[in-house]
Amino acid sequence: MTHPSLAVQDLTHDFGDRRALDGVSFEVRPGRLTGFVGANGAGKTTTMRAIVGVLAPDAGKVTFGGEPMTLGARRRIGYMPEERGLYPKMKVAEQLVYLGRVLGVPRATAQARAASLLETLGLSDRADDLLHTLSLGNQQRVQVAAALIHEPDLLILDEPFSGLDPIAMDTMAAHLRGRADAGVPVLFSSHQLDMVERLCDDLVLIHEGRVVAAGDARALREERAGRRFRVAVDGSPGWAPDLPGMTLVEAGRQGTLVDLDDAADPQALLAAAQAVGPVTHYSRVLPSLSDLFAEVVR
Ligand SMILES: Nc1ncnc2c1ncn2[C@@H]1O[C@H](COP(=O)(O)OP(=O)(O)OP(=O)(O)O)[C@@H](O)[C@H]1O
């Protein structure tokens, strides 16, 4: 199924005399996992609240499939709020079924979905436990299940990875990937830049209420790639080129890292490596997401 795109256009919002959002615009495309990254207080939660309609922004608009968000469209969003908000004294599965019913899912369907979500999130054995008896990380998994119980057309998740152990993180990541692969636009905020870098197709970087970079994650990194290359020669882990305009950064088991000045030819580096032995790796080094982030917020 093809889902529409979410577009956020020129959102502006003040809290008193503090401008929290200052003309925020970006798109969350169907089938794309979009990571929403920014420092504390940058405006991620406020933007997400405006998207799902719990906050009315001072200016700007949110459209889904080109149409303004209606109440009906909002019911098709799966939202995991920062403040969470499930019922601590209700049983896990019962709670999911209840939330599904509130969103118009027939009881039998909600029961089947709850069981299947708990299974994929590794919580089947806790289905009949009261929520508050689960660890915080497991409560968080239930929170994600709650956001998915009505098979939403759009997922907005505020820090779904915070507080999860590495295994739970992988489970969560696989689940979000699965929803995106099914065509759903997915926007999630996170401070775990390595996870975002590994997982996301698209990025939105926000700084002090303004979007400072947005779009295809790889393209954003490629645009900012310098002239650093990694080359690995089989059997010669410490090899270093001796060529004009090339500065060795490091040489080791991960290969040889070299900075080229503007006049140096990357092919000369490759040829020199090939003269030493079989080349097992040769690539231009892309900046990491944390490099990218540091650069755009400077
Ligand atoms: N209800 C509120 N009343 C007053 N100021 C607020 C309110 N909510 C947010 N703010 C302010 O708006 C700005 C943006 O906050 P927001 O919560 O959107 O940031 P964030 O990017 O989600 O941060 P974090 O990563 O810390 O969750 C901050 O300066 C914050 O203090």
Describe the structure.
Keywords: ATP-binding, Nucleotide-binding, Transport. InterPro entries: AAA+_ATPase, ABC_transporter-like_ATP-bd, ABC_transporter-like_CS, DrrA1/2-like_C, P-loop_NTPase. Belongs to the ABC transporter superfamily. This is ABC-2 type transport system ATP-binding protein. One of its GO terms (molecular function) is ATP binding. The chain is an alpha/beta fold. The protein has 2 domains: 140 residues, P-loop containing nucleotide triphosphate hydrolases (Rossmann fold), CATH 3.40.50.300; 73 residues. 34% of the residues lie in helices and 28% in strands. It is built from 10 helices and 14 strands. The strands form 3 sheets. Strands 6-7-8-3-9-10 form a 6-stranded mixed beta sheet, sandwiched between helices. β7, α6 and β8 form a beta-alpha-beta unit. α3 crosses α4. The longest helix is centred in the middle third of the chain and has 16 residues. It is globular. The mean pLDDT is 92. Bound molecules: adenosine-5'-triphosphate. Adenosine-5'-triphosphate (ATP) binds next to β2 and α1.
Characteristics:
298 residues, alpha/beta, Rossmann fold, 2 domains, six-stranded mixed sheet, four-stranded antiparallel sheet, 34% helix, 28% strand, globular, binds adenosine-5'-triphosphate
